[in-house]
């Protein structure tokens, strides 16, 4: 709360992840659960011009292809079911890795703060396993709560032809800062669960107590990591953005050739592993800073000086 040293925490977070590069791997895992990423599907060729004979897809060909695709799906419903099941399983696997990444970073930071000279991936992974379902359950329930709030609002907006969105705009403006508050509470709750071996609900209560008692430092740290992380994230994703610029500029010529789409897709695919790697380092740094914030604030409480009455 008082005299919280932001510079020390931010510098120490970088020192830890630079010395213990195994945390980069956990950062890549953790980035799977941070919503990062965006696969950009370059602008689909919306042929609003009257298609000439040399356009890659005529209207008749497009309709015929869609009809054939529809008949194929009707006759092979199992494919849709298999794809849905596969996507669900992949989502669960990536979310699981994301939770393990978060736990691993918290564990690694705590061990580094205790003076560990080397962090082994297997050791951190095995120590993180007992906390998986607690961290998973906490994030799942919070995500489910926000979905339960947002989904009816989105349906309301859709069924009212967009007019409903204007009505709920003030509520959405309130939900954005509220989601930031919950994000900060979750960060501290996760650290409490892992470092104090608390249950899911007890960890959430502990996280709320820490955030409530240290509102000032939490707000400042959230702004630093949120804004700073967003700026660095945009810089990291700049090649993807630049690859899409020619598509936007030449969108009206996509009826003639799809070569720019192929080139942009190839560039994005080639850069994606680099993007994943850099985003993993960024995520490892942000998660390390939050873990250190928890450690510093709880240590301040434990090390509070005892005032001894002076002798007359």
Description:
The chain has helices spanning 6-19, 22-31, 59-75, 77-113, 121-128, 132-159, 163-196, 200-213, 215-236, 238-249, 259-302. By secondary structure, it is an all-alpha fold. It has one domain (6-44, 69-302). Helix 4 (77-113) runs parallel beside helix 11 (259-302).
Structural class: mainly alpha
DSSP summary, beta strand count: 0
Strand content of the residues, in percent? under 5%
Terminal-residue CA separation: 33 Å
Assign a percent range to the helix content.
over 70%
Shape: globular
Number of domains: 1
Number of helices: 11
* Gyration radius, in Å: 25 Å
Which sheet architecture does the biggest sheet show?
Answer: none
- Contiguous uncertain segments of 5+ residues: 35-57, 304-312
**String of helices and strands:** HHHHHHHHHHH
């Amino acid at each position: 709360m008082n005299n919280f040293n932001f510079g020390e925490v931010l510098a120490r977070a970088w020192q830890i992840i630079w010395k213990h590069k195994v945390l980069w791997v956990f950062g890549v895992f953790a980035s799977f659960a941070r919503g990062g990423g965006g696969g950009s599907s370059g602008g689909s060729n919306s042929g609003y011009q009257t298609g000439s004979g040399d356009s890659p897809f005529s209207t008749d060909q497009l309709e015929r292809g869609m009809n054939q695709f529809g008949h194929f799906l009707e006759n092979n419903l199992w494919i849709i079911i298999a794809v849905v099941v596969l996507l669900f399983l992949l989502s669960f696997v990536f979310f699981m890795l994301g939770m393990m990444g978060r736990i691993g970073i918290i564990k690694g930071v705590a061990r580094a703060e205790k003076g560990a000279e080397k962090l082994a991936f297997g050791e951190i992974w095995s120590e993180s396993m007992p906390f998986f379902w607690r961290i998973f359950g906490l994030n799942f329930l919070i995500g489910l709560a926000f979905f339960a709030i947002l989904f009816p609002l989105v349906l309301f907006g859709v069924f009212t032809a967009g007019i409903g969105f204007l009505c709920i705009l003030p509520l959405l403006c309130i939900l954005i800062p509220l989601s930031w508050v919950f994000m900060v509470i979750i960060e501290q709750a996760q650290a409490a669960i892992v470092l104090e071996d608390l249950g899911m609900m007890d960890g959430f209560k502990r996280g709320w107590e820490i955030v409530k008692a240290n509102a000032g430092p939490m707000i400042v740290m959230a702004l630093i990591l949120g804004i700073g992380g967003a700026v660095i994230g945009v810089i990291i994703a700049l090649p993807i953005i630049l690859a899409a610029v020619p598509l936007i500029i030449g969108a009206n010529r996509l009826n003639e050739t799809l070569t720019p789409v192929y080139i942009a897709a190839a560039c994005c695919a080639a850069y994606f592993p680099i993007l994943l790697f850099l985003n993993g380092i960024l995520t490892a740094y942000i998660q390390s800073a939050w873990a250190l914030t928890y450690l510093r604030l709880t240590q301040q409480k434990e090390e509070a000086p005892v005032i001894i009455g002076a002798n007359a």
